[in-house]
Amino acid sequence: MPGRIFLSRIVGQPVFDPAGDRVGKLRDVVVTVRSTGRRPRVLGIVVEVLGRRRVFLPITRVTSLDGGQIITTGVVNMRRFEQRKHETLAVHELFDRQVTIAGDVPGTVFDLAMEMDTRRDWHLTHVAVQEAGKRFGRRGTAHTPEWSEVVGLADEDSVQGAQHLLKTMDEMRAVDLANAVLELTPKRRLEIASELGDERLADVLEELPASAQVEILGVLDPERAADVVSEMNDDDAADLLGSLPPATAEQLLARMEPEDAEDMRRLLTYEEGTAGSMMTTDPVVLAPDATIAEALARVREPDLIPALASMVYVCRPPVETPTGRFLGVVHLQALLRHPPSTLVSAIVDDDIEWPRPESSLADVSSLLAAYNLVALPVIDESKHLVGAVTIDDVLDHLLPEGWRESSTEAVRHG
User: What are the CBS domain coordinates in residue numbering (predicted)?
Assistant: First the structure.
C-alpha cells in the first residue's frame, strides 16, 4: 500500500499513460469536504494537458503516484474539467487557510497529505500547519495533525492568503497562471491577486479577459492598482484603462509616473481597432551611431517578448517615442549576419510603406502577412516612430470577442 503523499510534492509533476507517453501535468487534487470530523475522500486529479486544457482523471484510474511521476491507466477523457458544487480543489482552495489546532493554536495550512486505506480509497488524512510567528518575523512551529484535529478547514468563509499556493505555481507561465486563476471562485481569485508581486500580477492581468481584469483591479488599493497597470504592456494597459469608468481611469493615471501616464493618455486617444490603439510605445529604439553589438545586447533582455526582439528601430534622437526622424528597421537575422562593430544605420531596411497610427486592423494584418513579419513600426505623418505593433496584438483583435473566456469555458466532466 502506498505511504503518505504530500500534495506539494506531486503538484506540477508529469502524468503518463500506460505506454509511457506524457499526458500533461498534475495541477490539483479534487476532494469532497463534508465536515471537519470526517476525512475528505479524494475523487481524482486535475491534469493540465496540451493547450492549457484542464481535465479530470478519477483517482481509480491512477496506478502510481511514486517516484516523481503519475501513471494512469486507460484513455484520458479530454472534456474540460468543471468543478461541481460538492467538490473542493485541495491545493487551490485549502492551502493558506487560517485554522486552529490543539489548544486553540492559530496557524496556516501549507500542505496536505493523502493516504490509501485498506479498501483502496484515498483520503486526505493529515494537515501541515504553520503556527503564526511571534517575534521578529520568524516562522512559527510546524505541525502535522490529523484532519479531525484541525478546526476551520470546512469553513468556506475562513480568512485565507495565497503564499503557499503560489509556491506551487512558481514555474507556471503567466498565461497558465491566468487560466488557473480564472477557474477559481472570485474570493479565491482576489486573495491570490493580493499576494502576487506587481510585475507578476501585471503579467497575469494581461492574459485575463476584461471582466476579470476590472474585478481584480477594483479591489486593489488605488496606489497599488496604478503600480500594477504601469507594469503592464502599454497596449494592454491602455485597453484596461479604456474599459474602466472614466473617473476611475483618471484616478489611476493621476497616480502613475508622469511619463507612463503620458504614454497611456496618448494611446487612449486612438480609435479602437487602429494601429495606434494596438501598439506598444516601448520598442527597442537605437540611434544611428549604435553598433550591432549594442543592438544584440538590447534584444537579449529577458523581459522583451519575442516579437519585439525580432527587430530594432533606428531613429534620430530622441530615441523615446515619439522619436526623432525614423530611419528604418534592422531585423534580428541581419544583426546576426554582420560584424558586431557595424553601425545599425548601415543596414537599415526602409522599403515598406509602414502603417500610420490611424491605419486599420486589416491594413496592419495585411502588412504582417505580406512581408512575413511579426512586428511593424508605426510612423506618424512627420516620419517619427510613435510605437510598434506586434503579431500578438493583432491576434487579440482578430480573434472573436470574448475568446479568452471561451478558451476557458468549462464542459462538465463525467
Answer: 279-345, 348-406
Task: Count the alpha carbons within 13 Å of 269 in the hemisphere toward its beta carbon.
Answer: 6
Same topology, domains 1-171 and 285-398? Answer is no
CATH of domain 1-171: 2.30.30.240
pLDDT, tens digit only, all 414 positions of the chain: 468 999 999 998 999 988 888 999 999 999 998 766 789 999 999 999 876 788 999 999 999 887 667 999 887 888 888 888 889 999 999 999 999 987 688 999 999 999 999 888 999 999 999 987 665 455 678 999 999 999 888 776 666 788 888 888 887 889 888 988 887 888 888 889 989 999 999 999 999 988 899 999 988 999 999 999 999 988 899 989 998 999 999 999 999 999 889 989 999 999 989 999 999 999 999 999 999 999 999 999 988 999 999 999 999 999 999 999 999 999 999 999 999 999 999 999 999 999 999 999 999 999 999 999 999 999 999 999 999 999 998 998 888 766 555 554 433 333
Nearest to 237 by CA among 11, 409, 34, 393: 393
Cell of 54: 484542464
Dist. CA 80–CA 55, nearest whole Å: 5
Buried b (16+ CB within 10 A) or exposed e, 45-84: bbbbbeeebbbbbbbebbeebeeeebbbeeebeeebbebe
The CATH code of domain 172-269 reads 1.25.60.10
- Would you call 44 helix, strand, or coil by DSSP? strand
Task: Give Cα separations from 60 to 39, 45, 49, 72, 398 (angstroms).
Answer: 18, 10, 19, 9, 43
Q: Could you give the CA distance from residue 394 to residue 359 in angstroms, rounded to a whole number?
A: 12
Domain 285-398: CATH superfamily, name plus number: CBS-domain (3.10.580.10)
